Amino acid sequence: MEKEIQKILIIDDDEDVLFAAKMLLKKHVKEVLIEKDPRKIPFLLNQSSYDVILLDMNFSQDTTSGKEGMYWLEQIKERDPHAVVILITAYGDVETAVNALKKGATDFVLKPWQNEKLIATIHAAAKLKNSYNQVNKLQQEKQQLEESIDAPFKSIIGESKALRNVFTIIDKVASTDANVLILGENGTGKELIARALHKKSRRKDNSFVSVDMGALTDSLFESELFGHKKGAFTDAKIDRAGRFEIADKGTIFLDEIGNLSAALQAKLLNVLQSRTVTRLGSNEAIPFDTRLICATNEDIHSMVAKGNFRQDLLYRINTVEIHLPALRDRIEDIPLLADHFLTLYASKYKKEGLKIDPSAIRLLQKYGWPGNIRELQHAIERATIMSDNVNLQSDDFFFLNNKGPITEQSDSMEDSFNLDEVEKQTIQKAIQIHGGNISKAAEELGLTRASLYRRISKYDIS
């Protein structure tokens, strides 16, 4: 049978105790280290980590008070706050035990010990250490994940007047708990703005939870947002907290909220009014304290006028509205964005020193960018990969001429300024170019497959 406990350290100045403990425990532990001199504890802790440390309370300098043991316990916990220490003594009493536990000891045993009890105590302590390790690992993974997620959002790139107006609103709103609705086309950076609001808020040290409402089916909506109890439905094998619970004390970002059906709008409104959620399969209302940020690329006010979106729900979510400009409305930011993405992808694809020619910048500024910043990012990455030039030239962006409006070459769209018509024709052209392959067309447009399918349905594209 494989031994679950990896390593134990035993510190006692009685060699007989050390020998007896080692003989007993080596049947249950892969490696048992013994040491009679407590002054070597700092060195031993620097050398390795231990599942459990057995520490005598009384050494030769003081054989009855337990003060030496308490001192070395403090030294161990100072070096490793998650160290699991079991104190052993022949002079135990309740007061000593309580003091030891207060100072961080995990348990307390008396000499002479009962073998079965000592083994059981060590196994329990090792499980606690394993829990500490798992929590620490999860915290590190969470930190790395958050750093990875936040990396693209460390700065919002741009100096245009339109973007500075957005910055002004963020500065005014971020420190409040006002609900914010972010409006803008796909690819304009709505989640980036939502994260900026969170980072500048009083909730910045708590969770930021992002939910793509457009990707949630009606059947998954309640389970994902409100949670469920074990057995609530076929695949509910464990209790699970919903996104609102997870975002408690933090921020929840509901993206593509304009895609909710009338039934789901009613359920969401009820939760926002009551500030409680009830998990599927439960009758218990769970309160939450969450800052709400929503976003949509739809003309939500027109949707309200047409009866496609509840007016009372709109009032709940748009205490403050932030309108993000399309990239074609902030062309002065294109050089900055292009340089940023070029630096990113030149490093990624080992083409350091790659530059972008002014003629290429002029071309990028003339293009209509139906996919906005996301499309620009994709274009820079594609050109970086394919170009053999030291500087990216206009020819390296030849593919832009085949898939969307150039602002000075919009004959195919008859100079239409109707955004719905522009979007419809762009989608049709992308699907045509990729031979009807929806996945490739969606990637080209900077959309998810679900988002593209919704637009195909919206515009009745066959």
TrEMBL record:
Q: Is the DNA-binding keyword given for this protein?
A: yes
Sigma-54 factor interaction domain sequence ranges: 156-385
- UniProt keyword annotations, A-Z: ATP-binding, DNA-binding, Nucleotide-binding, Phosphoprotein, Transcription, Transcription regulation
Which Pfam families is this protein grouped with?
Answer: AAA_lid_14, HTH_8, Response_reg, Sigma54_activat
Q: Where is the Response regulatory domain?
A: 7-126
- Please list the residues that carry the modification 4-aspartylphosphate: 56
Q: Which InterPro entries match?
A: AAA+_ATPase (IPR003593), AAA_lid_NorR (IPR058031), CheY-like_superfamily (IPR011006), Homeodomain-like_sf (IPR009057), HTH_Fis (IPR002197), P-loop_NTPase (IPR027417), Sig_transdc_resp-reg_receiver (IPR001789), Sigma_54_int (IPR002078)
Its name, as the record gives it, is Sigma-54-dependent Fis family transcriptional regulator
Organismal lineage: Bacteria, Pseudomonadati, Bacteroidota, Cytophagia, Cytophagales
